[in-house]
Amino acid sequence: MRIKGFNRVELIVRPDQIETARTQFNELLGLSLPAPHEVSRGRAISSTDFEGHIELVAPVDPEMAMSLTLAEHGAGQVGPLVWEVEDLDQARSWLGEKGLRVAYEYDSRTGNDEERHLAVRQLILDKEQWFGFTVTLMERVRA
Hints:
Elements: E1 3-12, H1 18-29, E2 37-39, E3 44-49, E4 54-59, H2 65-73, E5 77-85, H3 88-97, E6 102-107, H4 113-116, E7 120-125, E8 135-140
Parallel strand pairs: 1-4, 5-8
Antiparallel strand pairs: 1-5, 2-3, 3-4, 6-7, 7-8
């Protein structure tokens, strides 16, 4: 498995604050976060600046783990730490060889039109094996 580098950190914000957060991060930190769009089949909204290595994500579905994290711990939560890999299928095999579990898989190519243009596949790893951190391996793919 070849890791290309650190891709981004996800910062979890409330849905009613994502636009204000996007504006503030863009204006004060010089980022290029686009308008938020639906991800995870409408269960969350997201704004990602791959060059700035940051994503603002807001859960819309109250049953999502992110929603529960916000409810339990309040604002200022850090979501997944994302590393970009060259080949996600190869990474999945490598993880299996090492006995590391995948908790969830995500493929934006199966989402709505807004998600598909981003074209990413992700493996969200079992945080029990990563010291409580949510670690994600991601591959950008051509839609």
